[in-house]
Amino acid sequence: MMDVRQYLCRIGCTSPMAITLETLQQVHRCHLLTVPFESLSIHCGENIRLELPHIFEKIVVQRRGGFCYENNSLFGWLLSELGFEVKLLSAQVRNAYTGVYGPPQDHLILLVNQEGQRWLCDVGFGAGFRTPLSLETNLPQSQENGVFRIHWRGETLILETIEREKQLPQGGGKEQAIKAEESKGVREIMTDKGQKGWKALYKFTLEACCLEDFKEMFIYHQTSPSSLFYCKALCSLHLPSGRITYIGHRLITTHLLGEGTQTQTVVELSNTEISAILKEKFGIELLYPLVPKDVDIVPPSIIY
Questions:
Q1: b/e string for 211-230 if b means 16 or more Cβ within 10 A?
Q2: Of 13, 43, 106, 122, which one is the catalytic site residue?
């Protein structure tokens, strides 16, 4: 049985909770800090169903994570049960590897209307915002992990973030530090080089959807060579100090330094280390062997 108090306990919140913007911000942030964004089920032979009781069992009872359809549909259920006015929306993600947008229903996001103000919620997008973004402004909205903005293009809204250029640190002590880290399995340490410009993350409209509308794309992302989730075994979790991400044979740790700057460390993993990392860093114990897949994504034949 799906239980609100059990869900709130899973994400470290207490009940009862008032229907306020502060509550919306709190549960959004708490979900991101406790529930991983992950595609591991696809790569260990687990059955995934786009049904809320099944998703509740996986995320709340088994303490797993999921991809957008799982995380956001369940989070939308929680918000509705708490008394918020919630709509499911369809978004198309701009793929970071191919540079093109995915098909309609590529991504599930949430619109919350709170006291006449519209807020975008998304707890199923790895490097996304931590607290809801206002749709009432096109100005930049700064958060601890980045700067975001939403602007209109006709009937379409586009979510953007400031992209920051990365480079390997060079010179003297930094190079020596890198060599010392490489001896412990660290392949590279990336540092923030500065602001590069605005980058689109995804586009969407305000047309309401129901969960069944996403069934075709739910299967697509488990089977298509043009899908990130099919091509890469991944698991990512926000941390107070940054974010930690497992992909294939890599563990990537992003450290926030303030004012939008960050460093990134990449550690190479052996097959025997992966299960221990998933348990230690993400609290995940898989029932079936994981295939640590990390192959190139094939650009889709249709450009949207």
A1: bebbeebbebbbebebbbbb
A2: 122
Structure tokens at 261: 């700057």
pTM: 0.91
pLDDT in tens, 120-147: 999 999 889 999 999 999 999 999 999 9
CA 12, 40, 232, 169 dihedral sign is positive
Q: Which residues contact 58 (CB under 8 A, 6 or more apart)?
A: 41, 48, 64, 66, 70
Q: Give the chain's residues under pLDDT 70.
A: 164-196, 259-260
43 is catalytic: no
Nearest-angstrom CA–CA distance, 272 and 188: 21
Residue 178, pLDDT score: 37
Which helix (H) or strand (E) segment holds residue 184: the answer is none
Among the listed residues 13, 28, 68, 238, the single catalytic one is 68
Active site residue 3: no
State the pLDDT at residue 169.
45
Candidates 28, 31, 43, 107; catalytic one = 107
Computed on alpha carbons and rounded to an integer, the radius of gyration of the chain in Å comes to 19
pLDDT for 163 equals 79
The rounded Cα 157 to chain-centroid distance in angstroms is 19
User: Quick check: is 107 catalytic?
Assistant: yes
Q: Identify the pLDDT of residue 257.
A: 83
